[in-house]
Structure formats: C-alpha cells, structure tokens
Amino acid sequence: MSHFSVSFDRRTGTPEAPVRVLALRGELDAHTAPDFEAALQACLDDGDARLVADGSGLDYVSSAGLGVFMAFVEPARDGGGDLKIAALPERVFEVFDLLGFPTVFDMHETVEGAVTSFEGA
C-alpha cells in the first residue's frame, strides 16, 4: 500500500510575497496523487501561487504524480508565481530528469535555494 503525506511546512519569503513550502513524504503514485493535487489546489485557492515542493522525503514518483506537477505549473505561473521543485533524492531526480522536467520546472538542490530564487522575481 502506498504511503504519502503532504504538509504545509511553512510560509516563508516576505510578508508581501510569501512562499509556501509543501513537504512531500513517501510514494507519490496513482493512489496518492489526488492528495498532492488537493494540497496544491488549496494553496492556489488561498492565493498562494509562489510554491516550493520539498521532495526530500519522496521515495518514489509515478507518472500520475508527475502529472500533478505538470497540471499545476501553469496555474501557479498564471497566478503570478511558480511551482518550484527542490531537494529531490537522486533516484527520484533521475525520473524527473529523464522526462525533461528540468526544462519546464525551476529545480533546486535545496529548499532554501528554491525559496530565495523567488526574490526579485
């Protein structure tokens, strides 16, 4: 059985331009992708379009999980922000890299790097 959780670690950035960090844990697959989708939608509904997906706790990602990232990058950008991906374990990063995600997403080695990359944006 898949296990996955997404938590809203914190809002960071500046009061005028907050950044929402979502901590992803476990396996992001067809069974758990709706949880991630709901979390991203909740952020956008709250007016938070500057998003960082902290993937440091991801053990696995399937095509369904990757599809959630793809579905929300444009709404985040249309809202004046972005959906950035950070801190992926090497084995998970290889999946993203193989499918060309680094050409579409702003990907960072650390959450802090992703958060600070919003400065001046």
UniProtKB/TrEMBL annotation:
Family membership noted in the UniProt record: Belongs to the anti-sigma-factor antagonist family.
Protein name in the entry: Anti-sigma factor antagonist
GO molecular function annotation: anti-sigma factor antagonist activity
Listed SUPFAM superfamilies: SpoIIaa-like
Domain of life: Bacteria
PANTHER family: ANTI-SIGMA FACTOR ANTAGONIST TM_1081-RELATED, ANTI-SIGMA FACTOR ANTAGONIST TM_1081-RELATED-RELATED
Domain STAS: 19-118
PROSITE patterns referenced in this protein's UniProt entry, alphabetically: STAS
Entries under Pfam families matching the protein: STAS
